[in-house]
Structure formats: structure tokens, C-alpha cells
Amino acid sequence: MNSPTPEPRKVIPIMAVEPDEEMISLYASHEKIYPRSVSGLFSNWRWGMVFLTQLVFYGVPWLEWGQRQAVLFDLGSRRFYIFGLVLYPQDFIYLTGILVISALSLFLFTAVAGRLWCGYACPQTVYTEIFLWIEKKVEGDRSARMRRDALPLSLDKLSRKSAKHFLWLLVALWTGFTFVGYFTPIKQLGLEFLQMNMSSWEVFWTFFYGFATYGNAGFMREQVCKLMCPYARFQSAMFDKDTLIVTYDDARGEPRGARSRKADPTALNLGSCVDCSLCVQVCPTGIDIRKGLQYECIGCGACVDVCDTVMDKMGYARGLVKYTTENAMKLGWTQAQTLRHILRPRVLVYTAILGAVVLAMLVSLSLRTPFKVDVVRDRGVTARVVNGGKIENVYRLQIMNATESLQHYKISVSGLKGLVVSSDEVVDVKSTESRWVAVRVQAPFDVAEPGSHAMQFDITSIDTPGQLVEKSVFLVPR
After folding, report:
1. CA proximity to 188, closest of 201, 202, 208
2. How far is 401 from 405, CA to CA, in rounded Å?
3. Model pTM?
4. Residues 287-301: pLDDT tens digits?
5. Domains of the chain
6. Cα separation of 390 and 442, whole Å?
């Protein structure tokens, strides 16, 4: 029996359907920025701050004060040495004062002239400038670096890249070593390094801080300012229309366009901007200042320097890009008028508060007693009756000498009738040392009713002026 012939399959053509939706990426791929070298007034100021900040950072740990390092934060012994000052954890109020002064200074400088800290003194800016200088010396200027990066790997490219990264690592590790030198005496740290005897924590922090510098200044650069730094986000809250910022004179510059030096821009219906894009090429964050104020702008003034150079070559007046305020740009104020409006109530309030805090800090430091005392009752010994029918309490006093010489301290007590110190009344404490002293205090048997009674210790320095009063209690047994 023959099987039925199968029917031929129908082929249905699949028509290409245009998508209704378009996929749009929310993240743009990062393009490497090659900042162009620039010279001028603000560039000189920036390099001056690089030299000043690094002279302080690298140089201060090597300074000596007496027989010790001038600035040392000795966490092991819980003492901070800052030139002639010896601070204990109990002096935490001074650290708070320094932080308050730093915050108020930041607010004041930002209200006056924008992101001065970011453009001239921030470690990210400073080390990026140093690393860019090394990169330029090893690999050449901006155009040479761009051409070399576009070429395939070669011996010349490999050798230059290796030399650059070697120098970067050298600077970064020296930076990490110096950072640790603020917490471990740097000469001792250097000896430990030569003997390969550094502690695990010293090695960790040297490499941690070093590689943080290497990564931030060598690779991340402007990404730290644009994506990681919180200051870039809240800076606008401290700006107003009388804050000095880097500004492009749109009315004078537009419409922009290329032209020869001899051409008359008025006849060509062009503004002063020749659209050379040099202001973009010199910007360390890669922004175009002609688009207005942007949060990525760190106020370094590189675009001001390069634009003034172009204006000089074209024979135009300087100031197409300049430091000025929104009100000055809008109302056409002179420089003198602009400076007068900077001294507005907001700035005066910041200045007054900052001055008051600094003055209070200086007065407090000048009146500071050069020793500290903590009183702790000896819990192992309760109030007891001793020979002679007297009641005795035992206390432990921690006396901290904040001077750099041997000091003698006299201990006395008051608060109850007949209260006396039955142990040594005078104790000595070595320079910048802390000593625990057991103090026995006695009183007549019938001095008071059973219970707890207020008393105080009076500690007087015999060698230097200073007296401290510490309150405590005297227990009378039932």
C-alpha cells in the first residue's frame, strides 16, 4: 500500500522589523586627557604652591627640635610633638580647633575666589602636576604623547613607558615613606628600611599611601576630581554672583571663528575667540570653559594663561577668559568695583568667625598648663582605718609632663578638715613622660559622717608656673 505523499512545507519569509526602541548607554567610555603645557601668571602660582607644599611635606619630618623630631605623631606613646608643643589625647580639643579653622578657611576662600584649594593646594592637583611634569620630560609634549600612544608597542615606546612608571613609583613610594615618617621617627624608619627591619604596619602604610598616590596622580587624575571628590559637588552652595570664578566673556568672544592675524574681526562679524581650542587642551579636567561654569572646573586658571597668550599674538586685549564674578561680567564693573563687592556680609562673617576661633586657639595655647593630671580611685583598696585611728583612702594619679625637662610636682589635698597626704608629697616626672603615682590620703576618724564627701587634689609645678585642681571623693566607712 503506498503511503500518502506529504504536502510541501510552506516557507514564510521573515521580514526585518525596525526596532521601536533605541538602546542608549548611560555611561560614556572614558577618553584619556592629554593636558597641554602652559606658562603664565597662574601657572607660576600653581608651581609655586607645588614647591611650597612639597617643601613642607617632605622637609618637616627631617627638622629637629631639641633632641627629637620637630613634628611627630607618636601613636604608640600617645603623644603628639609639634615643635615646642607636646600634646596628649586629653588635648583633643586643639585638634578639633584645627579642623574648625580648616573648614572655615575653606568656606572663606571658596566664597571669595571659588576653588582655590582645588586648583593650587589640593594633593591631587599637586601630585598630578608633578606626575605630568615627569611624563612630559620622559615622553615629550602633548602631541608626541598622543602620537606614541596611537602607535603599536615598540622598543622606544616600552622603554619610555617603563622609565616613566619607574619614576612615578619612586616619587609615590618616597611620598608613602615620608607619610609614615610623621608617625615613626623618620631617621629611625630610614635605618629600619636599610636593615630590612620595618614593622608590618610601617610597610603596609608606606605601600598603601604610595600606591594611592601612584594610582590617583598617574592614572585616575581628573576622575578623582570629577567623580570621587565630594567638594566638587557641594561647592555651588558656597558660590554666589560675587564669587571670583574663571569665566569666559561670551559677549566679547562670540561668534567665534578662525581668522588671520591681520583680519578685522568686525568686518568678518566675529568675536575675539579664534576657536583655537587651546583652552580645552590645557584644562586638566578636559572641559570647555566657553560652555559656562561647570562643576568639573577646579579654578586652576590654565585656560586664562593660554587665552591671554593667544590674545597677545592676535593683538587683542587680554581677559577673554579671566577671573571675575558674574555680576562684574554682567554689569561691566572695573577691577576696583569687583574687589569692593567681594567684601560682602557673607565674607565678613566668615572672616570674623575665623579670626575669633584662631584668636581663641592662640589664647588657649598660651594659657595652657604644661601638665595634665587624672585622678583614679584605687578600687583594690577601700577606705580603711590605719594606725593612729585615722581613715585612709588610696588614689592613683596619672601626671603627664608636657614639657621637655624634668619636672617636680607637689601634691596637696583639701575639702575636709584635717585631710593630709601621708605618702610622698613631691614627685618627679621625666620630660614628656607620664607617671602613675599612688597617693594615700588620711583624715581624723571623726572627720565626717559615714559616706562619700567631696575633696580635691591640688597639684603644683615647682619648676614651672602651673597649678591644677582635680576633684574626687573621700570615703568614710561605717
Report:
1. 202
2. 9
3. 0.82
4. 999 998 888 899 999
5. 41-235 (no CATH), 239-335 (no CATH), 371-476 (2.60.40.10)
6. 6
